[in-house]
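Hello forum,

I keep getting stuck at the same step: I have a sequence, I want structure tokens, and every attempt I make locally crashes halfway through. Rather than fight my setup again tonight, could one of you with a working pipeline run this one for me? It's a single chain of 296 residues.
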Amino acid sequence: MTRVSSYLLLVVFAPPLMLGIITKTKAAVAGRKGPPVLQPLYDTIKLLGKGAVYSTTTTWMFRLGPVISLSAALAAAALVPLGGAPLVAFNGDAILFAYLFALGRFVTVTAALDTGSSFEGMGASREVAFSSLAEPALILAFSSLAHRAGALSLAAMFAPHGGPSAAASTILALGSLFIVLLAENSRIPVDDPNTHLELTMIHEVMVLDHGGPDLAFILHGAGLKLVLMASLLVRLILPDKTFLGPLGTLAFGLAAAAVVIGLVESSMARLRLVRVPQLLVAAICASVFGLILALR
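Reply #2:
Ran it on my machine without issues. Output:
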């Protein structure tokens, strides 16, 4: 199997499978059977077969937002070493990776504001406010890993490195990136992807007016962001070479990450909105401490 074909399989099937494992884990903890693991894939296929309804108050930006957000996630996937070398790698691709995530968020927020709904504007303002704290944590964590690796490339930054100081800074970066993963993907305790309460919705409220293929693009792009962030954490924890092979190691790591996320969401409630910035500031502090240890 070539690198391109393996990438295509991962970007198509890994997001719904990971989301399905998370849902299945939460159902198992609650003592329920839960939906099938492939249910997110079935939902995406069903949405792709439906039509879309557009309000007369929306413009071309509302229709373009889902396409650009998915395209940004696909472009970011080419930079991440999924089960081996990435499709595109250069010194500084970590910065482009962060900017592609920011681009996807920007067009989603803009599409939500384009509806003219104060309800979606409320969710957009919350999304932007929390992302302004999540992005510094991401960049600072990348900085400590880049200093340790001596390069600003994701493939080099997320490769195993020895040494006590490297281990300490890596653990801090790992904790910070896990919090960023939960925040960027609207997971508990930052946000609840299943809630529909007006006062607590953040990401979900921004996509309420989307339907059909547009909603399928948004959901798959969000799942792909989760896979990419989890893949980086897997590379940071697991060795490159195991008896499972690169793709097998990645699949095992993604499944384990999905179970961990499901257990986290099952064991704690969503934080109050005023507490979310405190959690993200804690992630920033962990990244700063990791960077200080890396600079020593």
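Residues 3-129+186-267 form one domain. If your local run keeps crashing, start a new thread with the error log.
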